[in-house]
Structures are given as C-alpha cells and as structure tokens.
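Progress report, Aim 2. The chain analyzed during this reporting quarter is listed below.
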Amino acid sequence: MLVTIIGRGHSGTRAISETLSHSGIYMGEPLNGSWDLVPPEKMYEACRVFGSYVKHTGGLNWDFSKVIDTKPDPIFIRLIEEYLHSVLSSKAENKGWKIPETTLCYPWILKMFPEIYCIHWVRDPRDCILSGHVTDDLNDFNIKYPTTSDIREKRAISWKYQRELMKATPSPPSLLFLRFEDMVFKQDETLSKLENFLSMPMAKIHMRRDSIGRYKTDTQNSFFDFFKEDLLDCGYEL
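Predicted structure tokens for the chain:
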C-alpha cells in the first residue's frame, strides 16, 4: 500500500504523517521536524515543471485542462522518482510520504501512482494563513496569480489555488477527506475513519487544542470573501 497526504502547508499535515509513521507505515527518510520527507528540492522542481502547464485565466481562475488530460512530463517523473527514492525502493508492505508541495502537483501524482491511497487534509484557511510557508508565493512554482503586496492575501490565494486544483482533479479510487480540527477534538472518530480506509490499526498522538481558532485573536486580516464557499463546503462556520 502506498499512501500520501494532500494538504496545504500549515494545515496540520504533520499530525497525520506522525500518526501514519507511528502506526507502522514507512514514511521515507530522512524526515524533518514537520514529518516531511526531505530534502525537498526535487519535489519543488517537479512542482515548477507541473506549474508551467497550468494557465492563469484571470482573477482566481486557472485552466487545469493540460495537467488533467495529459501524461506527466518525463522530467517531472524523473524528479518525483528521485525525490521518493527511499520510499519507492523500500520493501515495506505499507509506505508513503508527506510534504505539502505534493498538493501542487496532485493530478500527476495520481497518474504516476493510480493505486495510491490519498488523504485529503483540510484546515480552516483562517488559521492556515497565519504563518508563512514556502508555497505562499505561487510564482515560485511557475503559477501566475493576481499581483498583491499583501502577504496574507498571497497566502489566501495560495490556499484557494490548491483547493481549486484539488476540486478540479478527478477523484482517485481510494480517497479520504479529513479535517485537522476533527483530529484535535474527535481523534478517536478520525482514527476510526483512517482504520477503515487503510484497513489497519492507527496510533494515537498528542494533539494541542490551542491550535484551533487562532485567527479569532489575531490582529491582522485572516478572512477573504473567496473563502466563503470553501469554508461552507468543508463544514466550517463563517
């Protein structure tokens, strides 16, 4: 079984990667403090190759038809295979990886690994954009977007772009949607969903409740109108 996590940086993906690792799923090596498979440079470069196939059509709209309809670029395949060497060469029965940038090339990951188990991991974007992440500026990954000097807006657009890419991608055969907030407040229920999805027992880890709702006491803007539809779709309150 091969597993990956699809979720933007600072969405709490560390928790699910740590959970899978403690449950006996080999997550590659080495791992950093966020339980990402590193070094990440090959993945970053693969995402730039992918990004060159995405067309910005104005505003918060992108044309994903090329990445949905075409096979992955051979350079992309080579870079991903090199990045995932420790995972793909492992003889472990159950294995996978986590790095947020996987979300930036999600459709081609599915084409390379059609039998993969995907965990879509979501966190309230109002919390997700409070801290900086390498994916804040999509231009760094050859993805065009409306110019802004507001760093919070850049992060919000990055969140929105990744959400739109996820929604535009045909669902794989094995897909599970989970929320970070449920892992914090309903860990037993969340782990039960994971156990049914992966057909194996899941380990509990320590989760911090103060990770939730930080935007409520933040002094800067953390809400953008284009969040509304996705907030409701993901079960969050406005």
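The chain is about 40% helix and 10% strand. The chain has a mean pLDDT of 96. These observations will guide the mutagenesis work planned for the next reporting period.
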